[in-house]
Design goal:
The chain is α/β, with parallel strands linked by helices. It has two domains: 2-157, 3-Layer(aba) Sandwich (Rossmann fold), CATH 3.40.50; 176-289, Rossmann fold (3-Layer(aba) Sandwich), CATH 3.40.50.2000. It is 31% helix and 15% strand. The chain has a six-stranded parallel β-sheet with strand order 2-1-3-4-5-6, sandwiched between helices. Helix 1 crosses helix 11 (293-301) and helix 2 runs parallel beside helix 3. The radius of gyration is 20 Å and the shape is globular. The chain starts with a strand and ends with a helix.
C-alpha cells in the first residue's frame, strides 16, 4: 500500500516513548513492502493534500500535538482526510483528544474545561469517521472514548513490541533502592513519589532519571539524560521502580522495561500498560505480550 503518515512531530527526529513506538510501527510496515511517506506541518499544505489524495491509507498519529509544537496542520488537510480518504487514527497519548498537557481534568474529575473535546464536534467526528482508532492500552482507549463521548466504535489495542534481548534480568547486585525514570513533574506523580520516599526513609537511596519540570528533585540523586540503550543497566541495579502518575498514563514503556529487568514496581492504577493485563503482574510479565503486536496491526490495516 501507499501510505501517508501524518504526525505533528516527526517520530524520526524526536526520542520520546511515543516516538519510539511510532518508529517501530513504521519500520514494521516498511519491512512488509508498504511505501510510507512521513508528513508533518513543516510540509507545504498543497504537497500534503496531493499525497493524501493518492494514498491507499492515511495514518493520523498525534496530529494535534499542540503543546509540543508551534506549527500545525492546516484545517483544509483534515477536511480532505475526513471527506476523501480512507484513514485511521493512532494515539501515543491524549493530545488528539485534549489540547492541554497531561489531561488536567482528571485532577479534579470535573468536565467543565472550555477546551474540552466534549464540546468539539469536529474532533469527535474525526475519530468516529476513522476506519480504525488505535490505542496503546485499554485505559487510554477508555479515557479517550469517554472524553469524546464515543460509545459505538470498538477501539483497537496495540501495545508496543519490546527488545527482549535488551530488557531482561541480568542477575546483578541491586544497589539502588528506588529508581524513577521519565519526565519529573506533578502529572507524573512527583509529589506522591516524595511522600513515598519520606515514608520509607529513602531520601539518600533514590535515583531520578529524566528531564525535570520542577527543578532539581528535593532529595536523591538526579541524572538528567541517559540513552535508552543504557537504561537496562540502571533497571538491573535497582530494587524498586516507582511511578505514581496523577494523570492517566497512556501506556508507560518504562514500567514494562523495569519489570522485565527484575524491578519490583511501586505504582497505581493510572498506568496504561498494566490496565491491559487486569493489573495482574503475572499476565503483565508474559513476554508474548510484547512480541508480534506491530505485525498483527499491519495485518489488520491490510483489511481496513
Amino acid at each position: 500500500m501507499n501510505i501517508a503518515y501524518l504526525s505533528e512531530i516527526n517520530p524520526f527526529n524526536w526520542n520520546g516513548g511515543g516516538q519510539t513506538i511510532e518508529r517501530g510501527i513504521i519500520d514494521e510496515g516498511k519491512s512488509k513492502g508498504h511505501s510510507i511517506i512521513n508528513l508533518t506541518p513543516e510540509d507545504e499544505s498543497g504537497k500534503i493534500v496531493s499525497i493524501l489524495e493518492k494514498a491507499d491509507l492515511v495514518i493520523c498519529c498525534d496530529v494535534d500535538n499542540r503543546p509540543s509544537v508551534k506549527k500545525w496542520f492546516d484545517s483544509h488537510v483534515f477536511e480532505v482526510i475526513m471527506n476523501k480518504c480512507k484513514y485511521i487514527t493512532m494515539s501515543m497519548g491524549y493530545c488528539d483528544v485534549c489540547r492541554k498537557d497531561y489531561t488536567p481534568c482528571n485532577l479534579t474529575g470535573k468536565r467543565d474545561c472550555p477546551d474540552c473535546p466534549r464540546n468539539d464536534i469536529l474532533r469527535k467526528e474525526f475519530f468516529k469517521k476513522a476506519q480504525l482508532n488505535v490505542f496503546l492500552s485499554e485505559l487510554q482507549a477508555a479515557v479517550s472514548y469517554s472524553q469524546l463521548k464515543i460509545v459505538d466504535k470498538k477501539p483497537y489495542i496495540c501495545p508496543p513490541d519490546l527488545e527482549l534481548d535488551l530488557f531482561y534480568d541480568m542477575g546483578k547486585e541491586r544497589k539502588i533502592k528506588l529508581l524513577y525514570a521519565g519526565v519529573i513533574c506533578e502529572a507524573k506523580g512527583y509529589n506522591q513519589i516524595l511522600d513515598y520516599i519520606e515514608k520509607n526513609n529513602l531520601q539518600n537511596d533514590t535515583l531520578w532519571i529524566g528531564d525535570s519540570l520542577v527543578g532539581k528533585p528535593l532529595c536523591g540523586e538526579w541524572i538528567q539524560k541517559v540513552d535508552r540503550k543504557q537504561m537496562p543497566e540502571y533497571y538491573n541495579s535497582a530494587q524498586k521502580f516507582i511511578g505514581l502518575p496523577r494523570w492517566y498514563e497512556a501506556f508507560g514503556l518504562v514500567y514494562i522495561e523495569a519489570a522485565l529487568c527484575g524491578c519490583e514496581l511501586v505504582t497505581n492504577q493510572n498506568v496504561g500498560c498494566l490496565s491491559s493485563y487486569d493489573y495482574d503482574i503475572n499476565k503483565f510479565l508474559n513476554k508474548l505480550n510484547f512480541q508480534g503486536n506491530y505485525d498483527r496491526l499491519w495485518k489488520v490495516l491490510g483489511r481496513v
